[in-house]
Amino acid sequence: MASKDIESTIIVGSGPAGYTAALYTARANLRPLVIEGFAWGGLLQQTTHVENYPGFPDGIMGPELMPLFREQAQRFGARLITDQAERVELASEAGGVHSVWAAGEQHRARTVILAMGAEHKKLGIPGEEELGGRGVSYCATCDAAFFRDRPTMVVGGGDSAMEEAIFLSKFASGVVLVHRRDEFRASKIMLERAREQQNIEFLTPFTVKELRAGEGGALTAATLVDQRSGEERELQIGGAFVAIGHQPQSQLVAGQVELDDNGYVVVRGHSTATNRPGVFAAGDLVDHTYRQAITAAGSGCQAALDAEWYLRDTPEVPIPAGMHLGDPAEAQWAPAADPA
Ligand code: NAP
């Protein structure tokens, strides 16, 4: 089934970038349609305390913060579809109409904002999935405090692994950093900082074969494999932090939008414009450097403004017969009623 309306903008994704783009485009009377997915809210929904999002001096739980983002976007007229985007067909000419399929329907729009985010890469070993939240974590900044005075392990050899290990070492009794090679991808300075910590021990070249639970159902041990000899070794741990990189969720647009070698969407200069006219990208889908909620929200704002300016400046390709533009009079938001 296809909707007859052509939207001004469709936003795919619902982390800080997606909802901020929704808030700004809604306030610009663009009546954004947000394809937010089933598990809306992005990676922050999987975290505990967020203490570095400005405006919350006492911190806030991730699963409390994201409904606030959502509510604020809805207040100004953002419409939400709580379903996955299944497929996209992006126009290649300026002013063209893009299509996004979700909830069994084809949705059309003049602009699309991609904000599908990134996922933590998984080891894909037995015990990892089952022990998520019961000893296995992907974010020391979020969860380190739960492992006070306990033995822990960090897996990975990049800057993220060093950062996780250093942060964790302030809480845990000890941190064993397990990496599959003797060489590290991490920058020299981060590696040195980690090596300076008395309670971080490096174990290379080792891989992790399995994570196991004790009687209480929480993580108690890991089986490691020595990559030189093939011998196995048991490590008693209360926490395992996996820091082996991130995977941008760009599968939906692969082949249509330019991606870099790691699958991140490429944007032009300081803008959020992709190589497709009228298609913008924001948040962790684009950013492998900063990856913070606040930077994602900032780029969501930029994408909304870029989309607004594009709509203002780009002549429309004539709309197909039988289609009509969404009625701006239906917009929920009137500037006079806005207290901001
Ligand atoms: P990364 O640089 O890609 O490093 C990932 C690490 O995980 C590598 O050591 C890799 O091993 C290992 N790995 C990948 N898959 C694995 C698997 N299946 N099993 C075991 N190990 C696996 O990722 P990152 O550390 O997240 O960093 C990403 C980017 O963010 C980098 O540009 C980094 O500089 C930046 N960053 C910067 C900071 C900072 O400056 N404060 C902090 C965090 C991140 P191999 O080396 O063997 O491939």
Explained architecture:
The structure is a single chain. The protein contains 6 helices and 20 strands. It is of the alpha/beta class and 340 residues long. Helix 4 (159-169) packs parallel to helix 5 (188-196). Mean pLDDT is 92; it is low at 327-340. Bound molecules: NADP nicotinamide-adenine-dinucleotide phosphate. NADP nicotinamide-adenine-dinucleotide phosphate (NAP) binds next to helix 4.
Please describe the topology of this protein.
Elements: E1 2-12, H1 16-27, E2 33-35, E3 49-50, E4 60-61, H2 62-75, E5 79-81, E6 85-89, E7 98-102, E8 105-114, E9 118-120, E10 136-137, H3 140-143, E11 151-155, H4 159-169, E12 174-178, H5 188-196, E13 200-203, E14 206-213, E15 219-226, E16 232-236, E17 239-242, E18 246-248, E19 279-281, H6 293-313, E20 324-325
Parallel strand pairs: 1-2, 1-8, 1-20, 2-5, 8-19, 10-17, 11-12, 11-17, 12-13
Antiparallel strand pairs: 3-4, 6-7, 7-8, 9-18, 14-15, 15-16
The structure holds NADP nicotinamide-adenine-dinucleotide phosphate.
Please give the oligomerization state of what you see: single chain
What is the N-to-C order of secondary-structure elements (H for helix, E for strand)?
Answer: EHEEEHEEEEEEHEHEHEEEEEEEHE
* Rg calc: 23 Å
Low-pLDDT parts are: 327-340
Shape: elongated
Task: Indicate the mean pLDDT.
Answer: 92
Helix/strand/pairing category: alpha/beta
Helix content class: 10-25%
| Amino- and carboxy-terminal Cα gap | 39 Å
Strand content: 25-35%
Strand tally:
20
Any ligands, ions or cofactors bound here, and which? NADP nicotinamide-adenine-dinucleotide phosphate
Largest sheet: 8 strands, mixed
| Number of discrete helical segments | 6
